[in-house]
Amino acid sequence: MARSIQSLERAAAVLRLLAGGERRLGLSDIASTLGLAKGTAHGLLRTLQQEGFVEQDEASGRYQLGAELLRLGNSYLDVHELRARALVWSDDLARSSGEAVYLGVLHQQGVLVVHHVFRPDDSRQVLEIGAMQPLHSTAMGKILAAYDPVAHSELVDGERQAFTERTTTGLSDLEGCLELARARGWASDLEETWEGVASVAAPIHDRRRLPVGAVGVTGAVERLCENGAIRPGLIASVRDCARSVSRDLGASRF
Length: 254
Fold this sequence. Notes:
Blueprint: H1 6-19, H2 27-34, H3 38-50, E1 54-56, E2 63-65, H4 67-97, E3 100-107, E4 110-117, E5 132-134, H5 139-147, H6 149-157, H7 171-184, E6 187-190, E7 197-205, E8 211-220, H8 221-224, E9 225-226, E10 229-230, H9 232-248
Antiparallel strand pairs: 1-2, 3-4, 3-8, 4-5, 6-7, 7-8, 9-10
Helix pairs in contact: 1-3, 2-3, 4-9, 5-6, 5-7
């Protein structure tokens, strides 16, 4: 069994201590309660403060939990709410399209698959929940980068690998793709990530009209495309699914 990292354990203990009991605690209280030297406790608190996990009251010098923890907590809840709201609609999309459906969110300069509905046939398939997809070459990645400024920044700053001869890696060309995606309300991937595979995706918004994820259909090019382009009926189905999930999350009609 791998050994734990002591500094991480101590930082977690500090956060748990601040999460319970009194709202704010001083350095001496934290150090004595956790059995730490003041210098050690101060170093931990300073690092946690720099990362936004802890805040220090200027008047009293006492510490409390920071806003970054709230943001992370809300992100966790949003992902689970997103998945819960999308279950029925993604199942319906898989049945109507006959293809695999993916639900993804922005995570660590890529797209994290948080829900996957198998293609409704008897073929052998692998569950891809937890898999990561690139931002620059997949339909879900491009639609997130088109609507989410953070995703866009990560696409610009991140590595843009050429997976196939069709992969767009140049920044100016990608910006054109994103502008087109915003104008259309959907993005596509025609063999840009995997040979013989195409996908189409649309953005999901929450009650604040913020992009919180994307839903997409992925399958063989010959099934998803007509005359070298994604079938219009499939695009409409994916967008309808995204709108339905968005409405369930409280977004106004759009």
